[in-house]
Structure formats: C-alpha cells, structure tokens
Amino acid sequence: MNRLLKRLICIPLAALCLFTMLSFSVSAEGEDGRRFVVSNGVSDSYTYSKVNGSRKVVASPNTYLPEFVVDSASLGVELVNPSHITAKDDTLYIVNTGKNNIIITDQNFKVIKVLDGFMLNGEMQTFSAPQGCFITNNGLLYIADTENQRIVVLSQDFELVQIINTPKSDVLAKDFVFKPQKIVVDTSDRIFVVADGVYEGIMQFYGDGSFIGFVGSIPVTANPVEIIWKKLLTKEQTSKMQQFVPVSYTNIFLDSEEFMYTVSLSTTLANPIRRLNPGGADVLIRNALVGTTVAGDQIGKTSQFVAICADENNIYYAADSVRNRIFVYDEDGNLLSVFGGSFQGRVGTYKHISSLLLFGDNLIVVDSQASIITSLYPTEYMETIKAGLNTYRTGKYEESHKYWTQVYALNSNFDLAYSKIGMIEIRNKNYEKAMEYFLLANDQENYSTAYTKYRTIWYTENLSYIITAILVVVVAIVVINVWRKKRVKK
Amino acid sequence: MKNQIKFAFHVLFHPADAYWDMKREKRGSLPFCLLLLLLQFVTMVIEEYCVGFIFDTSVGQTADILFLFATAIAPIFLFALANLAITTFLEGEGNFKDIFMMACYSLTPAILIRVVNTVLTNVMSLDEKTYITMLSTLSLLWVLLLLFVGIMEVHNYSMSRTVASAVLTIVSMVIILFLLLMFLDMVSRIFGFGYSIFQEMQTRM
C-alpha cells in the first residue's frame, strides 16, 4: 500500500520535473559532458543575393542549430578560455588554454584524461597557455605550447617524443620570439605553424624539427595613391599613416586532400580565406555562380576571420570575429549560409570563436571568451543543400536535380539552387528549361550560354522557314519593281 | 511631317549644312524638336522595359520613370543654358531657341541606335556583346560630333573658338549642377531649421 502511494506521488512528480526541465531551454543534464538544448527556432541565417550588381542580404531558413553545449559544469573539469579543438576517430582533444592543459574526451564529451604535462628527464614539465594541437594519423600529438615558446610532440601514451624550440635561421630576426599558436602536420611529417607576430607567412618545419622557411606569404600590395603621398609627406607624417604590413595568419586547417585552409586578418586588398597547396600557392576556387565573394560580410565592417574548417567535399566554414558569425561556402566559393552572431545570452551566439571542427555531421564551435563549446547540427535544409552539392560533384545529376528542387521548395530566395538546376538542365540539353532557371537565379552569364545553344537549335530547326521567308520577300520586291516600271511605261 | 523627318536625317549626314539652314533659312521646327525630346524619353523607357535579360544592368531593380524622364530631358536644357551663357560672351550668333533645337536634333542618332540596340539585346548573347558596345559608343560619338558641328554653325564660329566654347560649356554645366545641388541642399537645410523650430514650439507650448 505504502509502495503504491509512493509511486502515485513519485510518477507525477517526476513528470512535473521533466516538464519543467524541458520548458527551460536547457534540458536534462547528461552524464556524458553534454548539455542538450532546445533551439528556439528563430532563424538568423542569411545569404547574399545579387541584385543590380550589388549584394543584398537575403534571409534564409536555419542551416545549423545548437544541439548541445559543453562547459565546465557539464564536463566536470574546469574549462577556461579553450582555444582549440581537434579530433581523431572518436576522441576529442580540447586545448584548455586558461588551465594550461589538454582535455581528452570521448565523442560524448566524457572526459577520458586531462593532460597537464609530460616527463622530461624524470622531471614533470607543464604547459603554459597552449593554443593549438594536432593529432596525426599515427597518433602523435603535437602541442603548440605557446607561452613556453615550443612545440611539444607526444606519443600515443603521452610520452615525450620531441621538443621543437625557437628555430634559428637567417630569415628570422635575432630577437625572434617563437609563439606557436596553431599547428598542422601533413602525412610526410612536415609541420606547419601559425605563430604570433609572424607576418612572413606560415612557418614550416621538417619532421625532425628543423626550420625550412615560410610558406604562403601574403604579397604586400601598396596602393599607388598612398605611394605618392608617402613621397610627398614628411617622415613624421608618414609614420602616422597606416603601414603596409602584410597580414598575419590566424588559423589553419588541414583538409582531407592535405591542402591547408587558412584564414588571415584581412585588409581590403588581400584574400582573407585561402586554400594553400603544399607549395604554399593559393588554390581556392573563387568562381561563385551568383554574386558572392569569399570575403565574409559584404556590407559594413570587413570580416576578420579567426577560425576555419572544411569537410571532405570542400564545403568550408569560417568564423568572423567582428560579428561572431560563421560563413559557409561551397567548393566554388558560393556562400551557402551565414549564421551565429555576437553574444546575446542565448545558445548559438558567441563572444569570440576560436576554433571550428566538423565532428560527424555536427559543427563544433569553441568560444574562448565564454568558455563554452557549442555543437550545432545541420537542419534538413542544410542537409539537402549538402546532398545536392555532393551529388552534383560526383556526377549524379538526376539525384542532384531532385535535391535542388527540394532546396528551392524550402527557400525560394536561394539563387544557387536555381543556378544548379539550370546547369543540370544544360547537361540534359533542355536549354529552354535551363534559361528559365537562370532567369530565376539572376545568372546572366549562364543564361547567355544556354541561350546561345537554344538559338543555334532554333535556327537549324526553322532554317527552311527563314529561307522561304527571305525568298518570298526578295521575289515580292522584284515583282513589285517590275510591275511599277510597267506602270510608269504605260 | 515627312519633310521634318527628312530634315532630321539630313542633320545626321550633313550636319554643317543642315544646322546652317536651320538657323539662317528657318528649316526644322520647334514642335518637331519637342517630339524628338519626347522620343528620347520614350525610347529610354522602352529600353528599360524591353532590354534582353542578358544585357540588363538593373536586374531585380524597379524602374524609376521620373528619374528616367529627368535623365532624358534635363541634360538638353542644361546644355542649352550653359552654351547660351558662354556664347553670349564669345560673340555667338545663336539664341536660346537655336541652341535648344540644335541640341534636340543632335539626339537623333542616339534615339535610332537605342532602338536598334534594344532589339539586338534580345537576340544576342554575351559573346556578341562587342557589337552592342560598339553601337552605343558610335551613338555617343555621333551625338558629340553633331553637337560640336552644331555649336560651330549656329554661332558661326571658327574651329578654335568652337573648341574653346565647347570646353567652357562643359565647365559651366558642371558649375550649374554644383550650384543647383548647393541651392537644393540649402533649401532643405532652411526647411529643416524651420521645421525644428516648429517642433520646439510645439513641444514647449
């Protein structure tokens, strides 16, 4: 009897508890280090559309929504100013800068190990404000130990393999201070390092730690008007002018093809997002179908990119520190979506994004100032766009057509969908149909291509009529002239 | 009417002769000039609405008829005014009516080529863009040439004097525009001042 009473009270109470928990935006606290959130469904995603040659902001459906957040409380380990996250298989490595350690978790953010340091000659060595790390396919862990001015390489069992200290080279200044921030290592063991205060490019090391040189130097472009001014002005005046310093890299990401996606603080002249081949040349495709350029926000203050990541289909994600938004571009440089925003107290807004990572389908965003890691899941809309792009890329045009039709059903303002269908229709030789779609996409160049084909076909089909018409006109003119002359004679 | 059209074509190919006749032998008529000006406006509207999609520079933008009207009409008056002001000092023989008519007749090539171009934009593709640019450049040069010859004949100028007055006309057009903008700005400021006083009074009393 007593038991029954207990149950009678407990079940509704539990249900009530669950209900109240759900009604808050943050729901049940998992034991695995994740805190799931219920998204409010408010869309803050947008894209740009070409209108009258200039770009206009066009609202779009949500592309990524927060699924869960990870913070000190949910992790059970203090998370202070995390600046980097990386993954290998199902293991995640979070660089916990503020606490000088690396947190290693499983895919559910359940802490496996907190790496505080390593043994060197029987002595415990600690990290000092590390800012980046990289894990190679064979399990070597490279840590950019920023304030200790070194790179630490640890084995799978966290035993010391190698320490790379400040490099010595003729191309480096004598008082050069080595502050590695971000690090990637390719399969041939070359180490690429983005270091603080280095303007020459990305530092490149051999596997044994010897310094090779810089790659991906950003050319300095000087404005001719400024050069003339500099000639005219005095030294004191020129010293007050902005200097032509090259921009410095802020983040680096090694993609599946061993190319490096990089972001740099942009001036209006240099390309802020680059994809470098191993030789350091920028090979990013900037061939957007519809009027977008790979430069972040195109209205107002220039975007300053601080983090980047890419998937195996070359869809890349870049985070802007000015407005804390994430920009998604496809392989050709088409802007797929912009989302996020500066911190407003709700999940999905950020104080300062320091790292991005694609983990499964989710996009993991590390906010170093708020010390929160947010995991976002792609919505149906984004999944459809991705599927459309991937099928198009692999030549499954019929399938791709289906996906893009779904995309514009979900967002009729998305020019890329129409443009892609137009391209598919060109392949299917339905030029008239293609023209229709390019018209919807405001895509004049491709419309012209389709139109040229359509026109040729039209000519050949109607050639007999055209020639007949011309003949009739010529004969009529001759007949009339003859008739007139006869009349004049009379 | 037929004669008038013939005269307009006469202007196209024999501008010196035609403008001399217009001034001295009273050929050409003011109503026809106004018709030409109207045609200038009408062809501009047609171009705006009927231009082929490939060559449309204002995709997705709404047409502003008033603005089109102003761009069609205002430059002619501006030119006539500026030219009159300059040539009065430079012993020009033409009066305002002569200059105005001369300017209107000079528009003929622009009107004709605009119609041709609008048709062409509907059949040509981007690869053939050159032809269209060529035609519009031709029309611009033709109009400028007609205006130049016009100034020469209407005012009975020598070559050097024509060049000088043409340059001065352009300069004075710029000055007139500048003054006009300044005047408009000032008027709007005065109006704004008055309005803020009105607001102040309204909230205080």
- The helix content of chain B is over 70%
Averaged pLDDT of chain B: 92
Which regions of chain A contain 5 or more consecutive residues with pLDDT less than 50?
16-30
Q: State the separation between the terminal residues of chain A, measured CA to CA.
A: 131 Å
Globally, the shape of chain B reads: globular
Large-scale geometry of chain A? elongated
The assigned structural class of chain A equals alpha+beta
Number of domains of chain A: 2
**What letter string, H or E per element, gives the SSE order of chain B?**
HHHHHHHH
- Specify which chain pair forms the largest interface: A-B, 14 and 12 residues
Q: CATH fold name of the largest domain in chain A, please?
A: Neuraminidase
- How many individual domains of chain B? 1
Query: Averaged pLDDT of chain A, please?
Result: 85
Major β-sheet profile of chain B: none
The biggest beta sheet of chain A, please? 6 strands, antiparallel
Kindly report how far apart the N and C termini of chain B lie: 66 Å
Q: How many E strands of chain B?
A: 0
> Hey, roughly how much beta strand do the residues of chain A contain?
25-35%
- Can you tell me the CATH class of the largest domain in chain A? Mainly Beta
How would you summarize the topology of this molecule?
The complex is a heterodimer of chains A (490) and B (205).
Chain A: H1 2-23, E1 26-29, E2 35-37, E3 46-51, E4 54-59, E5 64-70, H2 72-75, E6 82-88, E7 91-96, E8 101-105, E9 111-115, E10 117-120, E11 123-126, E12 132-135, E13 141-145, E14 150-154, E15 160-164, E16 180-185, E17 191-195, E18 202-205, E19 211-215, H3 224-232, H4 235-240, E20 249-254, E21 260-264, E22 273-276, E23 305-310, E24 316-320, E25 325-329, E26 335-340, E27 353-359, E28 362-367, E29 372-378, H5 380-393, H6 397-410, H7 415-427, H8 431-440, H9 444-489
Antiparallel strand pairs in A: 1-2, 2-5, 3-4, 5-29, 6-7, 7-8, 8-9, 10-11, 12-13, 13-14, 14-15, 16-17, 17-18, 18-19, 20-21, 21-22, 23-24, 24-25, 25-26, 27-28, 28-29
Helix pairs in contact in A: 5-6, 6-7, 7-8, 8-9
Chain B: H1 2-13, H2 15-24, H3 30-50, H4 65-89, H5 96-105, H6 108-121, H7 129-154, H8 159-204
Helix pairs in contact in B: 1-2, 2-7, 3-4, 3-5, 3-6, 4-5, 4-8, 5-7, 6-7, 7-8
